[in-house]
Amino acid sequence: MAEVKSDIEIARAAVKRPIQEIGKKLGISPEDLVPYGHDKAKISADFIARIAGRKDGKLILVTAINPTPAGEGKTTTTVGLVDGLNRIGKNAAVCIREASLGPCFGIKGGAAGGGYAQVVPMEDMNLHFTGDFHAITSAHNLLAAMIDNHIYWGNALGIDTRRVTWRRVMDMNDRALRQVVSSLGGVANGFPRESGFDITVASEVMAILCLASDLNDLERRLGEIVVGYRRDRSAVRARDLKADGAMAVLLKDALQPNLVQTLENNPAFVHGGPFANIAHGCNSVMATRTALKLADYVVTEAGFGADLGAEKFFDIKCRKAGLKPAAAVIVATIRALKMNGGVARDDLGQENIAAVKAGCVNLGRHVENVRSFGVPVIVAINHFHSDTQAEIDAVKAYVDELGEEAVLCRHWAEGSAGIEELSHKVAALADEGKARFAPLYPDEMPLVEKIETVVKRIYRGAGISADTSVRAQLRQWEEEGYGHLPVCMAKTQYSFSADPALLGAPVDHVVPVREVRLSAGAGFVVAICGDIMTMPGLPRTPAAEHIFLNEDGMIEGLS
Predict the structure, then answer these.
(1) What is the DSSP secondary-structure string of 411-467?
(2) Is 5 a catalytic residue?
(3) Whether 97 is catalytic
(4) Catalytic pick from 276, 358, 430, 435?
């Protein structure tokens, strides 16, 4: 058996084209690109404004079953599908999120796809890239500093220091910073108060950047951020602190979408990166809209399983941006289905048709959910070398019984050549024009009912449990004019329930909503469920232990 190259070895051997050539494929002239070296660039705001009146291409969502340690390959399939579409003669581009340093040095080790279906430059994408995350971190923490500074210098706005809701952020997993007491050390350091840190990708500033339509909309949204409350419970906003202008200045360049390329030199828009288990989990509206004006088919992904990423893509991003997806691909692997069917990780390499069939209920639930939004569905079986034909046939038969089709894909090992069949079928599905997209709930539905609707219709739960304080907070926000906002569910990505160990397709479980947060600038209400954390911790053996520079000064360990 031939030696299998690592993702970083494959990426390093890629023959990249100058970024101006990639832009030319989409009709972007060199003067409309802002280069960051030879292989990445930002697309100018002036160019984006000039093409706003063009007709949109077809938008295709790639989502997946609930993630498992066995792997699903959602980003890999997203990238592979775009290469496949271009291979069969279509004009296609991919839109994915930027990588967070926290997961890169924590568990995942990288987030640019895998095998021969990657976006490059892989090392840059997984690390500092074009500095967007650093700009978001700085803008967020500038607002935090201005809050404490305002209180220190007399607190003219009358902020109740017990009710400051704006925390600080950093782009790293660090559980020690979840809860902190700041301003210790005496009068010169301000007024001590309890606060904490979230990871940058969970920041409302990240969500705002990803949902803003242009620079003016960005600044307006930043001004709407609620940072805390006065003693009379009235809200204090970022614009009250006169922070919105300076925050927009820090984010001016970060708002422009990034253009890079796949291993097969096809256009890739990589911009924004909110987590789907604690934020809305989609790449930026600006990147998606720009791609739709330039390509006939735009393939994008939504984070984690379809119960989180796809639901928020439909109910938040598409609702807010007026997007109408033409088709959806749900990615599954035989290994992950076996794990959902009760097989231990060490035994996944052994054929187990019964476990595959048992685990297919998770896939089936996601198929039903995506169809409920009026979007046509096809299943991609992301191939692993240990898969047997009998196991593959079992999945295909199960999906056929659902009235849909499952296609085996070998893009990880073969690039676009391994995903031609899916590419033809996805293009045909999108071209049929059968999508009748509609969000899950109407804007006017009360907030608590929106949360219950997601729990009952997407998670198949019996309902929610929430303290009276949570319900009272939701009612208060409705009275203040926020009742029309969609809800953003923050829960474990590993299960339809709030219990990460409850695999498969559980029903009638109760989802505990322990806290709600208003993201007035982003335009949604966050419901924090179960034990989910907005600042992750590192695992027992973090990926950082195996990331290093080799003797030639090249990065090793990213994957």
Answers:
(1) HHHHGGGGGHHHHHHHHHHHHTT------SS-TTS-HHHHHHHHHHHTS--SEEEE-
(2) no
(3) yes
(4) 276
Known catalytic membership, residue 74: yes
Check pLDDT > 80 for residue 330: yes
Catalytic annotation present for 434: no
| pLDDT tens per residue across span 359-409 | 999 999 999 999 999 999 999 999 999 999 999 999 999 999 999 999 999
Q: Note the residue count of the chain.
A: 559
Catalytic residue from among 197, 384, 477, 496:
384
Of residues 12, 87, 108, 514, which has the active-site annotation?
Answer: 108
Average pLDDT over residues 419-431: 98
276 is catalytic: yes
pLDDT band of residue 2 (cuts 50, 70, 90) is low
Q: Considering the candidates 90, 97, 167, 317, report the single residue annotated as catalytic.
A: 97
Per residue in 51-72, pLDDT (tens digit) is: 999 999 999 999 999 999 887 8
Name the nearest CA neighbour of 58 among 428, 416, 525. Answer: 428
Mean pLDDT value of segment 258-270: 98
Phi, psi at 398, each rounded to 5°: -65, -45
Kindly name the residue from 76, 137, 290, 534 that is annotated as catalytic.
76
Catalytic residue among 304, 477, 496, 524: 304
CA separation (Å) from 106 to 11, 173, 488? 21, 7, 25
